[in-house]
TrEMBL record:
InterPro entries: AlphaKG_dependent_hydroxylases (IPR050411), TauD-like_sf (IPR042098), TauD/TfdA-like (IPR003819). Residues 110-365 form the TauD/TfdA-like domain. Keywords: Dioxygenase, Oxidoreductase. It comes from Pholiota conissans. The lineage of its organism: Eukaryota, Fungi, Dikarya, Basidiomycota, Agaricomycotina. This is Taurine catabolism dioxygenase TauD. GO terms for molecular function: dioxygenase activity.
Length: 410
């Protein structure tokens, strides 16, 4: 398959050789880094529009809508207060959770068998199932407040997180080798040498807007928050789509064509797929910037095709439009945040830890088989890999560790 070139104006630094077959290209990686630079974006946009003023008048890909209308289309300014998305646990709910912890321990079961049946929540469970519907066909996110984390051991906090979350999406997905279904999001940069970390989750740096790869639902459980910063931000990718469809349909074309996704030295060294899809009357986006720019210990691989100028502009447009329409969440200790990973971008501000406050989140990948969206064909293999783990083989890391997928080369 040919390199992704804007069909309305071929990037002059593009090569006709297939990136899937060739190992030399007459163009080089654009001036783009993991952390977006607004000035670079604006200059690149101005340059490309000067070269071809017809870009904003391009046609959308066949079948793609000119505008999406849905509760999933929102802007941060639309929300008047967190009571619109926060579900507060009552004393009765907390008693149910405590009883469920005791019930599960009484079963003597492996953590992989945590489920609505083994972690029963008589009144909270139905409420969580309703909130899961909100994820899939409503606004696409909610926050559960708040689990009393200091009242439980590390293991029981993991049990509570997985048990409560099973009522939102029972199927858990892989995040690491050896059956790892639980990840820790925490600054580990002081524990590892430079170059050992290839993802921002293990640093104090800002995370740019993205989706996680290969999952319907991403949930985060705050064991502790930072001393300063670390605000969790989300944004409607459907609102971003509407903006691009109206003002830069050529970038919709670029996003809907196959991209060379870096696998950072694994086998195969790259995969090819679009970042944007329209299926079953829904826009689906799967995109993380670091696969195209690299990050610290995992730079963009030199033996695969660089991205094009059009793709670089599209990446920046996604970030800065997501930022424009974003909502900052008051993520507190003991909160669990749930988002629809197919329609919501998420990000976080940089942060500072202290001796008494060290930002520490747990993460699960989840799927609700009853409510799950239909997947486009190019994403099915990703999902199959994520959810290819039986309960007996699921492992839950109690202490933080860098996931194999983002372990730096050095």
């Amino acid at each position: 398959m040919a390199a992704v070139i804007d069909s309305t104006v071929a990037d002059k630094n593009a090569d006709s050789r297939s990136p899937a077959r060739g190992r030399s290209w007459s163009w080089k990686q654009p001036d783009i880094t993991y952390h977006p630079d607004r000035r670079n974006w604006e200059e690149r946009t101005a340059r490309r529009l000067a070269e071809n003023p017809s870009l904003p008048h391009s046609m959308l890909p066949e079948g793609f809508p000119t505008k999406l209308t849905s509760p999933l289309v929102w802007e941060g300014k639309d929300w008047k207060g967190e009571e619109q998305w926060v579900f507060n646990l009552t004393p009765a709910h907390l008693e149910e959770i405590d009883a469920a912890v005791k019930h599960f321990h009484g079963l003597g079961a492996h953590f992989g068998h945590i489920s609505p049946k083994s972690f029963p929540l008589p009144t909270l469970g139905p409420a969580l199932r309703d909130l899961s519907r909100e994820l899939h066909s409503g606004r696409g996110f909610f926050v559960l407040r708040t689990i009393p984390v200091d009242s439980y051991s590390k293991e029981d906090n993991v049990l509570i997180y997985a048990g409560v979350s099973s009522h939102v999406g029972e199927t858990r997905g892989l995040q690491d080798k050896n059956g790892g279904v639980l990840s820790h999001i925490k600054d580990l940069s002081h524990l590892y040498p430079k170059g050992a970390i290839g993802g921002p989750a293990y640093t104090t740096e800002k995370q740019v807007f993205h989706t996680d790869q290969g999952t319907d639902i991403v949930s985060l459980f705050a064991l502790q928050i930072a001393a300063e910063g670390g605000v969790s931000r989300i944004s409607s990718s459907w609102r971003v789509y509407n903006d691009l469809a109206e003002n830069r349909p050529d970038l919709i074309q670029v996003l809907a064509q196959p991209w060379i996704v870096d696998e950072f030295g694994r086998d195969p060294p790259f995969t090819e797929r679009p970042l944007l899809y329209y299926i079953d009357s829904k826009i689906v986006i799967q995109y993380a910037r670091r696969y195209f720019t690299g990050f610290q210990g995992l730079p963009r691989s030199a033996n695969i095709a660089p991205i094009t100028e059009a793709q670089a502009e599209a990446l920046d447009a996604l970030h800065f439009l997501a930022e424009k329409y974003s909502l900052g969440l008051n993520f507190q200790k003991g909160d669990i945040q749930y988002i629809n990973n197919l329609s919501i971008f998420h990000a976080r501000d940089g942060f500072r830890d202290s001796h008494t406050k060290t930002r520490h989140l747990l993460r699960l990948y989840q799927r609700n088989e009853e409510l799950a969206w239909k997947l486009p064909e190019p994403l099915k293999l990703l999902w199959a890999r994520t959810y290819d783990v039986v309960p007996e083989n699921q492992t839950f890391a109690i202490e933080p560790v860098i996931r194999d997928a983002v372990r730096g080369k050095n």
